[in-house]
Sequence to fold (202 residues):
Amino acid sequence: MKGLFATALAVLLLAGCAGNQTPASSPTLDEVFATRRSIRAYEAGKTISEAEVRELLTATQNAPSWANQQPSKYYVAIGAEKREAVLELIGGNKERVINAPVFIVSTFERGKSGFFRGTPTDATGDFWGAYDNGLSNAYLILKARAMGFDTLIMGMRDADALRALFAIPENETVLAVIALGYRAQDPSTPVHRPLDEIAKFF
Ligand SMILES: Cc1cc2nc3c(=O)[nH]c(=O)nc-3n(C[C@H](O)[C@H](O)[C@H](O)COP(=O)(O)O)c2cc1C
Fold:
């Protein structure tokens, strides 16, 4: 009887503890800004699932784009074969991201953002597409940090070889490759220019 009482009490206590557990809370936007850094060393042996990458890319769809043209496209190297192939197409970045489990190639479709019925609406032309892709990628790297991942945007890459590897259509411009993984280094915050050097108030 005494044993039964002790067991019941233990079960109740455990249930109580479980009920009091606070769920892991999401970081605030400021925390994401403060901890997001370009990471150049990743933990080996850790994986990121396709479902997690899908969640990340779904977040990028909230990014604004010129007349909602949504020109950004993503090619995800998550399987070993494509991952290893991408590692050979990023020059000196290879050693920095060798342990990152996922690489995401970002492109944008030309002739969409900045265009109306095939004609550029101003001198900016396809730069609006690049602008939109940058915005979308900003969402990507910030969402990644909020999910506990780390990233490195890589402009040093062989765009032609990536086009061939992923059968990227000719009407898309290949921009960055983004490494996605878990940090294996404590990065320092780079020096930022004084605000009054980059912003003028009138
Ligand atoms: C368009 C672009 C291209 C970049 N290319 C590379 C690259 O090829 N290799 C690299 O190590 N870092 C690259 N970076 C990362 C920058 O060096 C980094 O963002 C910058 O030094 C600021 O550091 P932070 O991201 O930690 O704030 C790139 C960043 C951007 C936005």
